[in-house]
Design a protein that fits this description.
Layout lengths: L6 H16 L3 H8 L3 E10 L5 E12 L5 E8 L4 H17 L5 E8 L7 H15 L8 E5 L5 H15 L20 H20 L7 E5 L3 H13 L3 E9 L4 E6 L6 H6 L9 H6 L3 E4 L10 E4 L20 E3 L8 H10 L2 E3 L1 H4 L2 H15 L5 H26 L3 H19 L4
Parallel strand pairs: 3-4, 3-5, 6-7, 6-10, 10-11, 11-12
Antiparallel strand pairs: 1-2, 2-4, 7-8, 8-9
Length: about 425
Amino acid sequence: MAETTNAFEMAQRQFDHVAELLKLDPQVREILRWPLREFHFRIPVRMDDGTIKVFQGFRVQHNDARGPSKGGIRFHPAETIDTVRALATWMTWKCAVVDIPLGGGKGGVVVDPATLSTSEKERLARGWVQQMWKNIGPRQDVPAPDVGTTPQMMGWMMDEYSKLVGEYTPGVITGKPVGGGGSLGRTEATGFGVIYTVREAMKHLKMDPTQCLAAIQGFGNVAQYAAIGFTELLGGKVVCVSYWDREDRTPYTVSKADGIDPRFLMSITDQYGTIDKNKAREAGYAIEPADAWLSKEVDVLIPAALEGQINAESVHKISPRVKIIAEGANGPTTPEADEVIRQRGIFLIPDFLCNAGGVTVSYFESVQNDMNFYWPKEEVLSKLDQKMTAAFEAVLELAEKEKVYMRDAAYMVAINRVVKAMELRGWI
């Protein structure tokens, strides 16, 4: 994330801008600008060498007017309370824009998970639940995996919660392993959701996906399945992905002019998204500087890494050929960059619409946990496609009707739904 970008200030600026457009009551605005609840806590963990190390943990519940808070838990060395606040806020709008009955939450721990052994990760995951178990639950707040956390960690967290409350409670956490209360299709959900919205944008712009090229920033779960979706579902080509190399602590772009093979790259990528450079070179891939993805001559840009990547400076590197920016990451574009994108007439699919596939299938997972009945993968992905397509159409319709930028339209749809729920519950 760019040093000058405070994610929460960015989230508030985006909200304030749309609050003006909607002429929101100042009292309502004051409720929605800030999280309703925040938890800051310390997690003592006994390390494998017998010493005790203390980690800083967070959970933010932004708004639960529409249902239990929902949002991932990040294990990241640069985690801050402002990042968690921003992500919790965006989760409120994300759940509302895809019209699922949940509110926004987010959690985190300041840690580099790559420095922990498997047993240390388990103790830290269980320690997080021990601090938060009275304030999470299927009807209160439902965490999920995010950057640096995995389905296995969610399994441990669900187990710890079930022990503490004295009953098997799979619905306390989503993103669990299949066979341990998880849903089929969850792994692909966010990346495929990005591509469903790209497909709809291409229909709107009358673009032929089989003739289109894409550049993707990132090669974690979202980017991997966005790359697979773009090539296998749409028939287009992805010319590059970028990744963070853990060994030399440097980001790179891996590219191939005639199109990458995302499944091959996944086969040489470790669990933290680091691609084996040597194997990539042997297979004919070029290794380029970190920001090379941004200036590629492509039709679609998919930032699917961290916040603030397209900013006032970097936005000018975008090729004139680019027609669509699909925000696979949360908050990848700063308000200053938005102005340039708007002026250039690039069609933007805003983050909390574009990457809502993950939370949508997390919601499906909760429903299946409640029913104790699990759907086949095809049914999950079909329901996801329907939800994402309906959400895209609602935002596009409002954008065209009100003649506003797609990000503003998505905010307007989401904020209106949250305000309506607050009115119906008598909060305002």
